[in-house]
From TrEMBL:
InterPro entries: ICMT_MeTrfase, Metal_cation-efflux_comp. Keywords: Membrane, Methyltransferase, Transferase, Transmembrane, Transmembrane helix. PANTHER family: BLL3993 PROTEIN. This is Isoprenylcysteine carboxyl methyltransferase. It is a multi-pass membrane protein. Pfam families: ICMT (PF04140). The chain crosses the membrane at residues 43-64, 71-89, 124-150. It comes from Nostocoides australiense Ben110.
Length: 182
């Protein structure tokens, strides 16, 4: 794995993030048209900053500190690809309901299909997996550890807000009591 190839991979993830924002903004408009109420907007700028900084930090670490790519970089790449696959499974499962904010549309039951059948918050599992795997493709340990710690603090807030907001949504037949989230 070369720094140039790693940069291409990170750039592709950045493009994927832009595609997510397009989908998110379209879905946010859909939710608002149906009376969707946003919760926890105060922490959203910190989330955007952290996730943008994550991409920049791993590139800076690789290009400035020049860590060697681990011999097992393929395992890390497989983890990063798996995280993307899980994220898009979440997006597909939630459909119009998915966006990067916490928005509850009145009257819609919680989703209990796809990955939400097994995890209350599978998208956050994808974020955690990606936060470790993507930087480790090229040995960016500092970014992997720093993002993981900062993301844990942010996720604590995000999960508290999201779980409280989703408690207001009606449960679908057979749904587990745990909230399903974006």
């Amino acid at each position: 794995m070369t720094p140039v190839l790693f940069t291409v991979i990170v750039a592709l993830v950045g493009l994927e993030r832009l595609a997510e924002l397009v989908v998110s903004n379209r879905n946010l408009a859909w939710a608002r048209e149906r009376g969707g109420q946003e919760y926890g907007a105060g922490h959203y700028p910190a989330m955007v900053l952290l996730h943008t900084g994550f991409l920049a930090a791993m590139l800076a670490e690789v290009w400035i500190m020049r860590p060697p790519a681990p011999a097992w970089w393929g395992v890390a790449l497989a983890g990063a690809v798996s995280a993307q696959a899980l994220r898009w499974w979440c997006i597909r499962t939630l459909g119009h309901r998915w966006n990067t904010r916490v928005v509850v549309v009145p009257g819609l039951p919680l989703v209990d299909s796809g990955p939400y059948r097994w995890f209350a918050h599978p998208n956050y599992v994808a974020v955690v997996l990606e936060g470790v795997a993507l930087p480790l493709i090229h040995g960016a340990w500092w970014t992997a550890v720093g993002f993981t710690l900062l993301n844990a603090v942010l996720l604590r807030t995000r999960l508290r807000v999201e779980n409280a907001a989703l408690q207001q949504a009606p449960s679908s037949p057979g749904a587990r009591p745990a909230a399903r989230g974006q």
